[in-house]
Automatic annotation (TrEMBL):
InterPro entries: ACP-like_sf, PP-bd_ACP. Gene3D superfamilies: ACP-like (1.10.1200.10). Residues 18-78 form the Carrier domain. This is Acyl carrier protein.
């Protein structure tokens, strides 16, 4: 039972970190950062902001995305999937 609680707590911590990163990079309230939030809904999501996001995620989770993952990242959910694919501790 304790491991279930620990795993849930770890997921909540990581989710909050993803929300915080998106919030800081795009200047949005953390409460608006949900998996279905997409690139076209964020006016400040341009190529420079995209690379800043990638760098922040890679630095935070100590992983490196491949080119396809970077190009395919068009939503918060895509970022979460890419992190998992790279073995990020989520």
């Amino acid at each position: 039972m304790p491991s279930v609680v620990l795993n849930f707590a770890a997921k909540v911590k990581i989710d909050m970190t993803i929300e915080k990163i998106f919030s800081e990079v795009f200047g949005l309230p953390e409460s608006s950062i949900i998996d279905t939030l997409i690139l076209t809904e964020i006016g400040s999501w341009d190529s420079l902001a995209h690379m800043i996001l990638i760098t922040r995620l890679e630095d935070t989770y100590q992983i490196q995305f491949n080119g396809d993952q970077i190009a395919d990242m068009k939503s918060v959910g895509d970022a979460r999937k890419a992190l998992l694919a790279q073995g990020a501790n989520i």
